[in-house]
User: Fold this.
Amino acid sequence: MKIAIIGVGLAGLTLAQKLARQHQVTVFEKARGPGGRMSTRRADPFAFDHGAQYFTASDPRFQAFIDDQIQAGLISPWPVEIALHGGARISDKPKYVATPGMNAVCKALASSLDVQSQAHVETLISVPGGWQLSFKDGAVAGPFDWVVSTAPAEQTQTLLPEQFSGQASLRDVDMSGCFALMLGFEDSLDLPFAALKSATPPIGWMALNSAKPGRPAATALLIQSDNAWAEAHLEDDPSSVMQTLLDAGSELTGLDLASASHQVLHRWRYASTPKSADRPFLIDPNLHLAACGDWCLGGKVEAAYLSAAALADQFESLTKA
Assistant:
């Protein structure tokens, strides 16, 4: 079958790699490169994991995937002691990061696939023989026998037609935003922690990115906002958001973080999933449309992998039938 997958994060790439063993798969992504929320932002000499910070494993299938990637040199354990602030809690499960940046695993998965970057899919068009994809620049691709969206739930809801059987589940998903402030310093920082989780807004997380395994030595500090705070301020002036996070970060560390020579703010509109679809994937066998992603199972990196793996198994069952 000819299958189009929309989205080049871990879910889309995992699904594509599994399906490409038997089918003709093309992955479409509106950004310039792979990663999704497992992205790495580089601004020489600094590098920032400005999305997902680390991941853990509960399911043996994802642990096996991690172990394989460790053997390939793409994942490293991160035995960091995370400081807790304001009553924050954190899992005691082993923590891992991709190396040399969080997007390393996605880049490796994409290297063997047909990935079309900077291809912003706007609509699906039903045509004889399947579905065509219509892009923002006016181009079209297809027809494809199946189309799978791994975009965030709200974007997937807009993209897939109203008659898609999973629309009610998509509407029920709740995703929240986050701001990521990337700070680069000419000199080292005398920080009281390498990473901190906070339960006191506006800050939700801080980490010395340059202290993670395999990262460039240039001092790179990442501050992520609390998700609920971000939701209340998503449309605020970016300079105001940046100043608020700088002030709060300076207070937490006892340092003047405004001295950073590199200061960039990124807004993630869909960063976490307070309410998931509570099912591994959505599929409409009659329309030949499906959706999967971390939002199906709770918003973690592991959830993205497990959602895609489950949908790949479902495709195998459909093929055999």
Remarks:
- The mean pLDDT is 96.
